[in-house]
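Module 6 notes. Inverse folding takes a fixed backbone as the condition and produces residue identities as the prediction. Think of it as a translation problem where the source language is geometry and the target language is the twenty amino acids. Below is one complete input and output pair. Work through it position by position during the lab.
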């Protein structure tokens, strides 16, 4: 039949295609790229310059002194964007100059206000952007990163809560309808949560990220450690291809795989964002360090699950749950051996209704309250000796002449026995202390919590 002739023709076509592709490569035609846009993100310790590319490029970079400059040479690339339009305010870059060089190469020169240490790398496309060349310019005279040590306050130090808004900068996180972005929503929630903690005697909160810039996952942990955080909570919003999926979940780190398939999936996608940082991704593979890390992690894992349960209990009151128990997954951001850590997925930003709710100040406030209340409930039971909270819970008497008593405001869904168990006091004692005849309580009622012991 015609079969053999057909195959010969087919083979010939494939061969021709290969020749054509090879010719394109040799002529350099396929490799030519355009710089289509430039963005600048300013973080507390560095400036991130991002070039939007039409395709991947080869590049080199170096610095020059007197005056300080950073030079970036990009092969076979044309500048297709206006350098003057780039917003350089709040960055140490005074000016960006660009010129074509021999063989269609592009040279960009950054005139700097101060000396910086550059690090450049390529980023592949994500949900929001295409191929990119990232140039991080690390400040050389960064403000001293010495952290004020927590004032000891006569053995009554504040409990430090590290609030970590996920993603940021080039990494938008999950994208919802109408330009609702995870990175923005979670920063708003983190800021609202900080306000609550800062108002609560015995607590102080720090924000791991306080702006629209990216912080690497291991850097997030080290910031928390530098501030001597007692608890680390990473705030996120989920996305799923099925837009109907909704609900919040709370995760802690697992050492041996994820506790469910969806936890595994989520951990993979959240961890992948670490590639965004481009630096210091993997833990250095020292066996002994690994063993020690695992040992100390087991201790904090238990605390993490306990705080996680308290937060989940609070979130249940304001939102549907995606998972009704604290899930375990291998999140890189939670791998702090010495700090109990949880990750809260506040809802599905891919669900239009939930996305809309998450972007309102009102719901953000509710989520903040849930994180706050859950955390407080945990520390009321397990605060470490040396903290003001521990001192108050153990019959702390006076501070500056004022009587300090713990109190708790009843919220919808609370029962008296639940409140008693949360604060580790007996039901009888709690009743007697508040002059209650029975177990009836009402929303908004303030209960005095008797000291333990
Ligand atoms: Zn996230």
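Target side of the pair, the amino acids:
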């Amino acid at each position: 039949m015609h079969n053999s002739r057909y195959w010969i023709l087919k083979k010939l076509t494939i061969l021709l295609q290969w020749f054509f592709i090879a010719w394109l490569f040799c002529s350099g035609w396929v490799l030519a790229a355009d710089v289509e846009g430039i963005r600048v993100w300013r973080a507390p310790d560095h400036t991130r310059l991002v070039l939007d590319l039409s395709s991947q490029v080869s590049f080199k970079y170096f610095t020059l002194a007197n005056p300080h400059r950073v030079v970036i040479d990009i092969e076979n690339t044309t500048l297709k964007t206006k350098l003057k339009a780039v917003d350089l305010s709040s960055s140490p870059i005074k000016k960006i100059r660009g010129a074509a060089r021999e063989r269609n190469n592009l040279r960009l020169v950054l005139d700097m206000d101060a000396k910086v240490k550059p690090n450049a790398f390529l980023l592949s496309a994500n949900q929001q952007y295409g191929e990119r060349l990232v140039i991080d310019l690390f400040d050389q005279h960064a403000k001293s990163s010495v952290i004020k040590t927590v004032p000891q306050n006569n053995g009554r130090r504040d409990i430090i809560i590290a609030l970590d808004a996920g993603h940021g900068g080039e990494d938008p996180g999950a994208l919802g309808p109408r330009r609702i972005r995870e990175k923005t929503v979670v920063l708003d929630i983190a800021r609202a949560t900080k306000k609550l903690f800062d108002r609560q005697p015995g607590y102080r909160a720090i924000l791991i990220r306080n702006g629209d810039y990216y912080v690497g996952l291991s850097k997030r942990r080290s910031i928390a450690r530098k501030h001597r955080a007692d608890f680390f909570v990473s705030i996120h919003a989920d996305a799923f291809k099925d837009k109907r999926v909704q609900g919040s979940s709370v995760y802690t780190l697992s050492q041996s795989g994820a506790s469910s398939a969806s936890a595994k999936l989520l951990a993979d996608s959240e961890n992948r964002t670490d590639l965004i940082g481009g630096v210091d991704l993997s833990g250095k593979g020292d066996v002994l360090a690994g063993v020690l890390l695992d040992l100390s992690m087991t201790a904090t894992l238990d605390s993490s699950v306990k705080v996680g349960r308290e937060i989940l209990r609070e979130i249940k009151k304001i939102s549907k749950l995606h998972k009704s128990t604290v899930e375990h997954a291998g999140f890189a951001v939670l791998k702090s051996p010495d700090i109990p850590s949880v990750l809260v997925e506040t809802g599905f930003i891919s669900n239009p209704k939930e996305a809309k709710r998450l972007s309102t100040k009102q719901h953000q406030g509710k989520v903040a309250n849930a994180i706050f209340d859950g955390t407080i409930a945990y520390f009321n039971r397990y605060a470490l000796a040396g903290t003001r909270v521990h001192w108050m819970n153990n019959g702390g008497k006076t501070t500056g002449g004022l009587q300090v008593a713990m109190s708790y405001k009843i919220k919808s869904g609370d029962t008296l026995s639940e409140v008693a168990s949360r604060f580790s006091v007996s039901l009888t004692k709690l009743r007697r202390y508040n002059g209650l005849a029975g177990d009836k309580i009402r929303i908004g009622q303030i209960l005095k919590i008797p000291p333990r012991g």
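Reference fact for the lab report: The chain has a mean pLDDT of 81.
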